[in-house]
Structure formats: structure tokens, C-alpha cells
Amino acid sequence: MTAVSDRPAAEIGKARRRKEDQHLITGRTTWTDNMTLPGMVHLAILRSPMAHATITSIDATPARQRPGVVAAFTGKDFADIQGDLPCAWPVTPDMVNPGAPSLAVTQVNHVGEAVAVVAARTKAEAVDALEAIDVEYEPLPPVLDMEAAVADGAPLVHPNTTSNRSYTWTFESGAAGTGQPIDGALAGAEVTVTRRFIQQRLIPSFMEPRSVVVQPVGDGILMHSSTQVPHILRTMLGLTLGIPEHKVRVSAPDVGGGFGGKIPVTPEEVITTLVARKLGKPAKFTESRSESIMSAHHGRDQIQDITITAKRDGTVTGLDVHLFADMGAYLRLVGPGVPILGAFMYNAIYKIPAYRFVCEGIFTTKTPTDAYRGAGRPEATFAIERIMDELAAELGMDPMELRRKNWITHEEFPFTTVCGLTYDSGNYEAATDRALELIGWDELRREQAERRERHDPVQLGLGISTFTEMCGLAPSRVLGSLDYGAGGWENASIRMLATGKVEVVTGTSAHGQGHETAFSQIVADKLGVPFEDVEIIHGDTQSSPKGLDTYGSRSLAVGGIAIVQAADKVIEKARRVAAHLLEASEDDLEFEAGAFSVKGSPGSSVSMGDIAFATFSAHNLPDGMEPSLDADATYDPVNFSFPHGTHLCAVDVDTETGRVTIRKYVCVDDVGNPINPLIVEGQVHGGLAQGIAQALFEEAVYDDAGNLTTGTFVDYTPPSAADLPSFTTDRTVTPSTDNPLGVKGVGEAGTIASTPAVVNAVVDALRPFGVTDVQMPCTPERVWRALQGTEKSDRAASGTNAYGGAATTEGGAE
Amino acid sequence: MELDHSFTVPVGIDETWRVLLDIERVAPCMPGAALESVDGGEFTGTVKVKLGPISLTYKGKAAFVEKDETAHRAIIDARGRDARGNGTAAAKVTATLSEEDGGTTVAVHTELDITGKPAQFGRGVMVDVGNKLIGQFADNLAAQLRGAGSEPEHGADEAAPASAPAAAAPPAKAEPEPINLMSSAGPAVAKRLAPVALGILVLLIAVGRRRRKRR
Amino acid sequence: MIPAAFDYVRPSSVAEAVSALGAAGEDGKVLAGGQSLIPVLRLRMAYPSVLVDVGRIPELQGVRDDGDAIVIGAMTTHHAVMHDELVRQHAPLIAQATATVADPQVRHRGTFGGALSHADPAGDLGAVALALGAEFVASGPGGERRIAAADFFVDYLTTALSPDEILTAIRVPKLGAGWSSHYEKFNRVAQAWSIVGVAALVRRDGGTIAEARIGLTNMGPTPLRAFAVEQALAGAEASAESIAAAAAHTAEGTSAPSDLSGNADYREHLARVLTARAVRTAAGA
Question: Taking Cα atoms as reference points, which of A266, A273, A301 lies closest to residue A287?
């Protein structure tokens, strides 16, 4: 028996530095591409330069003659064994999925699609040999513009379909019984504002390009992949390739970022598996950055037609949303569902009585789209926050006053929205008041008026985004009602080692989020053990056999709760041992700071370490008790979590050049109880950078032949720290009432919230000039053209119709 | 991308038409082009594009797909692939002749599609480069046609592209001599900004060049 | 990505470099700092048979005083150039413009002569060299020759250097008394190439601008001088109004490209705005 130590400071809420960073950022770790296995072959993939073409002939024979080449395969070699890449989200029963080969067999449907693969002793030899593969293409007309794609007589992307429309998904609050019919709202509206917003196509620029190593093991495989979803990947590989699931082990070693970009099963994972199995040798494929840019999935790319109705006094009465969502050439794992996730967020924090949402998923000859940080919710938040500003302008109301008039007040929680979601908690007033104070809103408004007055060539604009999001994906029943192909639970198990150290196995799979630190803090507090004594095990289907991985800000709000529940089970088992050792009744014990003691007699106690060792030795356990404290838990959330916040942005707009400079950015986020404020801060900062990047910098551009012309970062222009302001961040804390930690997600909040704040600020600066919209990214040229009153200002050269994917015939400044 | 160029030569329309249809004289007007074989209406060859450190060699075929004598319109369809698999280039060139003051105006309309690395990684300059290449083609064609007036026997073996910086490449075969007129202008032919350097050429080829990019 | 195979030679003198280049023929290529060439090699858009690495040739390094000019060795890194005392004193325009080139990593490896030889019209240093009236010193099999900046830039990515010549140094005339300068760069993200850049040199004489030289970045396939602006500025009042009036001529004689970073008409507009700003700043007006 040891004496009870002093109660350690609570770990939860401590701004600890991340324990995983030392090895991650010094490179003393194993990224997938670092792996070299005995006998391993290196793969290089030949990709289509054509957007849309029939492969009239392809011959890999010359490549096989090149030095070092072990094998070369074309789509024909794999046609019978490669299956189709899985799409797990058939959003409607009649959704058209034309199939998605990993290696194109007869036709290519986007630039960058894989058509052949070479395996060689070195990567250099494999790349060299690609030049020897002879492919002849017969061009087909590219399909780039979503509206044109569904017009009569439009060329089809896929010959085995009758339309380029994959699906139409509809929600209407009158029909759903969650609100009033939209038709009434539209017909009786005192004020109606309609806008078209373009969500440009974005490229998830994770730091580590994707990489996969496949090792044949007996009649199964061990795949190491830079993936966000080892568990889902395992199941899907089994289904796609017909390898029994129990013969597939997937390991995600350290993974350098994902942002959704590493969710789908990739063609490269399938191709590498097939080559490794054909050759009976380990095989590795690692993409280059430019390959990643053109062939890894893209995000966003929607045309949003949105109508809001209101009374003259500003009370919003209805919201009608129609989306064209570009699926690209194929349906990836959750691609069709991404815009549908947004369906529940257009009403945002507002009490909107009538709502309709219609989304058409469209095929084009562009890189497929799928989840990108926020996945559907940034698009929704952008549209509603932008149109609230437009409605305010129409009504002559202050945009914040309009929001206050319509948002759910803190007394009204829990609140069931027009979509049928129940928001458990929130306090929009508190976050907003704090943000206004931090940025000095009134003073900025005065300065803005003064600069307008004196026609300062540099105008000030102020933008608001009062957002919420749904995260913690997700209650399995809800996913089922949305026809998603899996549940949303998460698993954890805790193993008490003999020396009192703790191993925690989680089914979430970190790729830069800081799980090891945050989960260790939770377990340290729960079990009363030192933070350093906790090890988090994740990312390998062998050591962490059960889980649904990391996306949708779910790791803490779902995976964290599973850990809490497993810890509770460990404590209950330990209580039984403690009672036995202390010769007391379990009911008389209290557990505090990692030790059990008898209530009222603090002198006698046993620590978790003591109990762990006693259980390990098993010399003296209660009769009938298994010698184990280990426990696992699978948690299926009862609800999403709904973080919210108020983001305010002040921009300087140089009306002579069109340049937008962010002068001040303030955000007050409410993510519930923070486990580690430093990690929260990091997630918010990174999220802001990505959201601001959409507003001002990034856009994937296709030319009229379907070439992706932003093929390197030189042209895609992701911003760096030098292009971003210093952020002022703060928090309000309104704990979630739906989970025991009171936590909400934070992984996507910054990205979801920031984009409309910036664009609203840009438009606010320009509104006196008659500008009512600037298409994203708000490049200097676009801003300048908006000021010239010229119509839409394509960023691309005037020889093309490049429109960042979401090609439309209108839009831009009105 | 679509590009338009036009020029006028002091040669009669029938003679101009005759030269225009002579594929062995027209093909080498493409900068960096070398004709390898002619088989009936179809010919094969290479076009080497050199741009600073960047080099691409397109190997492909071209053929007349239309010869409308009444309308004096000829359409050449050319397609090539980079020898290293860096992408493809396809051009549909429509030349339309019309009489003008005893001379002939040639309108050259080009639909040019470039795929692969030059389109993806070129910082968007391919539009300009394509325009430049076709501009040079039009210049060379003008010179070739002008040559037709004074040296009607100018044969394929002598006809070759000018050495031009944006697309300088000696033909791969037979070391054909450059057209005299062009060689006197030298590299400046390619310089849109140096019309003065074109000297007499400009006087002879009444300039109606304009460029237009559509959509 | 991995470049195609090439031979690599690293001469230790200019003479050796020239002979290596001569031996390589048309497919030889000089490797300086590699900040433009290596990406092109890795993308496999260039296939030189031989790379002649001039990075270890002592005579190409550093900046020296040569009477009425400073001589910048072609292989002096951007970082060294922008911190060099001679440059800062006699050609501060170079120091200022160089500081805007790419990012610190690139400036530590990229070189002054390499950037100029690459002749990317979106690069910032060509317009600066043009405005300063620099002379380019080249060595080839026939010996050394000097090329005026105006003759050096021939076309897009194309200079007057022949394939067997290397640029060894750039001679920059020292600015006389009364000259001041400014480089105005406009790009989209911090490390990006210029959409448009303007190098302005102004000699003031009391309240008037006696003389001005304006170089334009990315307003054509080569860096350009804005002669019409220079003429309009000569003898003009050093005021915002008269500078703006002169800057209205900036786009004359240019042929701005239309590409992903901007359409030609926007570039022309930007060039006018930036020229006015550059001249105002240089002239202290």
C-alpha cells in the first residue's frame, strides 16, 4: 500500500504541448514513403493527359524492356480483377453510379486518371519507363460546365448512362413535417432576395502526398497507407477486391495531414495491391505533388442558387436552396453525400420556419470530388451568411441586427430546427458580444464611414459570420436515414499494464490532430494516472481492430467518449479489486486522484498502480473475478455536436489595384469544454487559414479542353503565414449536454466560419460602389473588375472558360 | 483555344490556292517542324518546341480534311504526341482565301488543343505560346506564299521554318535550308514587338494580323 | 518527381565550364542555383543531356567595385546580393527588388545571374537590370563579350547568350548623385512571381523630375522599358498629379500576357497604377 499522493492538477483543460510533435516535425518517424521492404518494387503511374477520350490503343510492352522494369500493366490486365472503387453513400435509391475503375480500361474521363502502371526496382526506373508506354486516344468532348452537362443533347461523360445527372436529393420542411411548406413562404413573401454563389473547386493540400505500401502476407495483404480511414479502407478493400476482410490488415503509420483528402479508397491503393499480389512482392507507390493535385480528389465545386424570404421587419420566413454539385468524373467513397451533409446547415443558427433544399449531383470530366475540411458545411455556412448580408442590405438593416433578430437565443435551447436537428446548447449572444468587443467594431464602423466620406482609395470592409456546424459524425441511426453505408459509432479499449501504465486503443486515426495528447489527458484524469503513463495506440487494424476513423470532427466527440466509457468500466473493475484489498464494501469506496479509499478513513487507500499489479499477479483477487482490468467500449452518439461562434473580419480593399488585405480577424468559438486549449487554438488557426484561402487565394482552374491548369502550387497559390494576419482568438464555453465531457468538435470550425466573414467584408467595402458580390477567390483582378462594373471576371486567361470547375453562365458582380 | 491570323500576299488567288494545297510546302511552315513522310494526303513529321529549358517534341500526323476549291477554303487537321509522353497537341487549321486588289488575303483560323504537362504546369503561358507558334506559322506561310509569286519552283526540300527563338529547332532530317526571306529576318520574326526588324517582309506581307481568343 | 537521367559536370573555372558546355552541344544546360531549372527537370519538361554546375567557380562569386560600376558575380546568391554593402550603396534598387524574390529558401540558393539568364519575364530582376542600364558579361569559346541589358533579353525565356556561353557577371553602373529608386511588386501570395512589377529610377532636380528610367516586369515576353513614361516624366513636376499623368503611358508598347494570374487589360491597368506608385515613392512625391 502506498500513501495517497497529492491530488495532481487536472489534465483536462491544460494547454499541453503535443507529445507527438517531436517525432513528427523532426522526421524521426515512419511516414509510409520511408518504408523499404525486402524485394520491394516501386511503382509509377501513367496518367491521362486528356480530359475525355477513348483509349484506342495502349501498349505497355516497350516499358517492360526498359532497365530495371519488373512489370507493366494496363487497364486491360486488371479489368477482370480490379472491381470498382467503392462509393459508400448512395444518397438516393436511384442514384446513378457508372462505376469507377482504378486503371482506366476503355475510356478516360478526367486529366490525371491512371491508365497504366510500371513496377521497377527503383522509382527512377519506373518513372523512366512510363515514357515508353504508347497510348492513343480518340478525344471525346470535355464536359466542364454543370448546367450545360444536364442540358438536352449534352455529351455524356459515361457512355453507360443516359444523363450526366447522378442524383437529385430533396428535402422540404413541409413534406418532412419539420416546418412549414416552402411554397407558402415564397408566395407570401414581403421581401425576397435571390443570389447565385459559386463554391469554387478546391484542392485539399495535405502536407504529405499520398503513399501506399502493400506487402503480400500469405494469402492476404498488409497495406500501409497514408490514409485517414484504415478501418473503412480494410472493409472496402475486402468488398472491392474480393479479399476476405480478415485477410486484410491496414496500417496508417504517421500520416501528414488529410483534410478529408485521405478518406476515399484510392485508385492507387487498389493498383498497388493488385501489382503486389500479381508479383508476390511488396510494392510501393508514392505520388508526387503535381500528381496529387490532379488526381487526388478535389473539394467544394458547387453552384448555389439561394432565395431567402423575410418580412419587412427582418423576420426571415423561408429559405430555398438549389445546388449543382460537381461529382467530377466518378463517385468516390462519400462524394455524393458531401453536399447532403450541408443540407442541414443552411438554416444555421436561425429560426427559419420554411426550408427547401434540392441538390443535383452532376458528372463532369474533371477530377472527382469528395470530402474537404468541412464537407458540405462550409458551403452551406457561406451561402446563408452571405445572403443574410444581402438581405440586410435589401432591408436597409444592420447585418448584425438582422442576425440577432433571427437567431436562436440561449434560453431557447434545446432547439429543434427546420431540418429536424436538435441543437443541444449554445449561446450566440455571448460569443458575438465578445467578438464585437475584441475587434472594436463600433470604432471600425466609424473609421469606415470616415474613409468612405473622403473617398479613400483604400476602403475598409467589415464582415460577419455567425456560424454553427454539426460535427461529431455521427449517430448511426441518422446516418442510416441518410442512406450512408456505415454507422457512426466509435470504439476504444483500455489496457492496464502490470506496472500501472496504461495503453489506450482508439478506433479513430489521427493524421496531425493531436489525439495522443488529448486522449492521454482524458485518461490521465479519468484514471488518475500521470499523463506520461498513458500511451495511445491507433491506426492499425491489427492493434486497433475496431473503429470508424477520423473525419467530420468526430474523434473527440465520439472517440473521446468511447474512451471515457472504457475508463469507467476499468474503474468499476478496479473498484472490485480495491474493495477486496481494503476489505471494505465497494459502496463504501470513493475514487479520487487515482486511488480508492474508504469513505471517512482517508489513511487506507490503494492506487490504480497497486490494483493493476495485484490484478496482474492475480494472487489475491475476489472470488470469480477474471484477472483483468481491461475494458472496451463502443459509443454511438445520441446526437451531433453543434459548436458555434462569431467570426469578424476587417479588410482593407485597395480600389486601385483590387488587392484585399485582412487587417484584423477576430473569432470567438464555442467548442464546449476544451480538453487542450493549445490544440483547439492550433485547429482554429489552421482552419482559418484554409477558410481564408478559399475566400482569397485558392482555386482549381480547368481550361476549355479540360486541362487542370493549376497543376502546381505556383498556380494554385495556397497562402503561407506571410499572407495571413495575426488572428485574435477567444472562446466562450457552453458545454454540450449530449456527452459526458461536454465537448464539441473543433477540427473544421475555423474553415467553415471564416470564408463568409472575409467575403462579407470584401463586399461590405465595395457596396457603396454598387457591388453586391465578388466571386471567390476574391483575387485583386476580380475585385478590380467588380469595381469597373464589368461582368464576371474569370481568373483564367480569356482563351478559356475556366471557372474553377463550377462553370456558370452568370454570377460575379451584379 | 481558338486563334485567328490573317495576312495578304501580292499573289493571285489561284496561285495562292495551288501553293496552299502543296502539303510539302505548307507543313514546314510550322516552326520547328520536320516532314518525315508523305503518303497521299497524309503526312507525318515532328514539331519541336523549345522554350528556354523546356523542350517538347511532338510527333504526329496531319492531313487535309477539306479542300473546297469554290470557297477557296482548306482545312488541315494535325495531331501529335510528345515523344516522352508529356501530352498531346491537336490543331485544326482553316485557311480561307479571298481576292483583294490583285493579291490574296489568307485568313487562318486555328483551333488548338494542348494537353498534358505544358497545359498543367506552364503557369498559364501556353495560351501565349500557342498563339505565338501559330503566329509564326502564319508568318512563315505568308513568306512561303510570297515566295510562290517570285520563285514558283520552290520545293519542299528547300522550304523550312525560320529559326525562331520560341520554337527554334532545325528539322530533324535532311538539313533543309531556310527560306531566304525568312533567314534574313532571323530570330526577330518571332518578336511581335519588333515589327521594324521585319523590314521588307512587313511591307510585302500587308499586315492584317489580329489575334482573337474566344471563350 | 524524378528528373530524366543526365550527365553532371562541375567545372572549377569559367574556361572549363565553357568547354564543358561546348562539348555538350545543344542539349547542355548550365545549372546555377537551380531554383527554376530543377523544378522543370523534376516535372520532366526539360531533358538536358549534360548539366554544367557552375556553383563551385570562385570567380563567379561576390560583388566588387570597379570604378564607375559595381560588378556582381553571376553566382552570387540573392541573399548575398541583397545584403551586400556595395549593392546597397550603389544600386539599392537591386537590393530592394531582390528582397521580393520568392522566399528566403529560394533566395539562399537562387543566384542573381541564374535568374537573369533564365529570363522569365515574371522574374523581378530583368526590369531592374534594364532600368539600371546594366551590362551582361558573357564568356564563350570566342572569349568574353559584354551585352547591353536592352539586347540581352530576346524573348520569353530566351537571352542573347548562345548555348555555349555562360553569363559570368553583371556590371551595374553606379548611380550618380540625385538618383533615387523604388521597386513596386504586385503578386498574389508572398512567394509568387510578379503579376506586374515596376522598377523606377528617378533623378530629381528641385521640384521637378530631371530624368527617369522605368523597367517593367511581366508586361511582355521580356522585361521592358516604359520609354513613353520616361519621356513624359523628363522635366515634369514632381507631383502626384503629373506623375499619374506620365504613368498613364505605361502600357504603351507593351504586350502583356493573359494567364492564370491576370488578363492583359488588368495588367495594363496595374502597370499604370504601380508605375505611378513606384515613381512617387522614388521621387518622394
Answer: A266
Task: Tell me, yes or no, if the pTM score tops 0.80.
Answer: yes
Asked whether the beta carbons of residue A697 and residue C192 sit closer than 8 angstroms, the reply is no
Strands A248-251 and A53-59, sheet pairing: unpaired
Write out chain B residues lying below 8 Å of A699, CB-based. none
Tell me how far apart the alpha carbons of residues C181 and C212 are, in angstroms, rounded to a whole number: 9
Q: Name the DSSP letter for residue A665.
A: E
CB A363 within 8 Å of CB A438 = no
Element (H, E) at A467: strand A458-468
Determine contact, residues A101/A111, Cβ cutoff 8 Å. Answer: no
**Which residues of chain B neighbour A798 with C-beta distances below 8 Å?**
213
Written in H, E and C, the secondary structure of A535-568 is: EEECCECCCCCCCCCCCCCCHHHHHHHHHHHHHH
Q: How far is A710 from chain C (nearest CA, A)?
A: 8
Q: What are phi and psi of A46, to 5 degrees?
A: -85, 130
Residues of chain A contacting residue C39, judged by C-beta atoms under 8 Å apart: 712
Give pLDDT tens digits for A338-363.
999 999 999 999 999 999 999 999 99
User: Rounded to an integer, what distance in angstroms lies between the CA atom of residue A658 and that of residue A652?
Assistant: 10
- Chain A residues with CB-CB distance to B124 below 8 A: 709, 715, 796-797
How many Å lie between the alpha carbon of C208 and the closest alpha carbon of chain B? 32
Q: How many CA atoms lie within 13 A of A232 on its CB side?
A: 28
Which of B115, B212, B213 should be substituted to probe chain A, the one whose Cβ sees the most A Cβ atoms within 10 Å? B115
CA angle (C66 as vertex; C64, C67 as ends), nearest 5: 140
**What ipTM is given for this predicted complex?**
0.96
Is-contact A597 A590, C-beta < 8 A? yes
The residue-averaged pLDDT of C260-266 equals 90
Residue type, C129: A
Q: What percent of chain A has pLDDT over 90?
A: 93
**pLDDT by residue (tens digit) across A182-240?**
999 999 999 999 999 999 999 999 999 999 999 999 999 999 999 999 999 999 999 99
B55 interfaces chain C, CB cutoff of 8 Å: yes
DSSP element (H, E) containing A345: none
Q: CA-to-CA distance for C130 and C227, rounded, in angstroms?
A: 12
Express each pLDDT in B45-70 by its tens digit.
998 888 888 888 889 998 899 999 99
Q: Are A494 and A504 in contact (CB under 8 A)?
A: yes
Beta strands A595-598; A589-592: pairing state: antiparallel
What ranges make up the beta strands (E) of chain C? 7-9, 28-31, 50-53, 63-66, 69-73, 135-140, 143-148, 153-155, 158-159, 166-173, 179-186, 196-205, 208-217, 224-225, 236-237
Amino acid at A701: V
CA torsion through residues A170, A171, A172, A176, sign:
positive
The reply to whether A792 touches chain C by the CB within 8 Å rule is: no
pLDDT tens per residue, range A601-656: 878 899 999 999 999 999 999 999 999 999 999 999 999 999 999 999 999 999 99
Q: Tens digits of per-residue pLDDT, C48-90?
A: 999 999 999 999 999 999 999 999 999 999 999 999 999 999 9
Measure A715 CA to nearest chain B CA, in Å: 6
* Residue B1 touches chain C, beta carbons under 8 Å: no
Backbone region of residue A318 per phi and psi (left: phi > 0; alpha: psi in -120 to 50; beta: other values) = beta
C273 vs A contacts (CB less than 8 Å): 656-657
A659 touches chain C (CB under 8 A): yes
| Closest-CA residue of chain B to A142 | B113
Strand, coil or helix: what is C92? helix
Q: In terms of CA atoms, which chain C residue is nearest residue A799?
A: C258
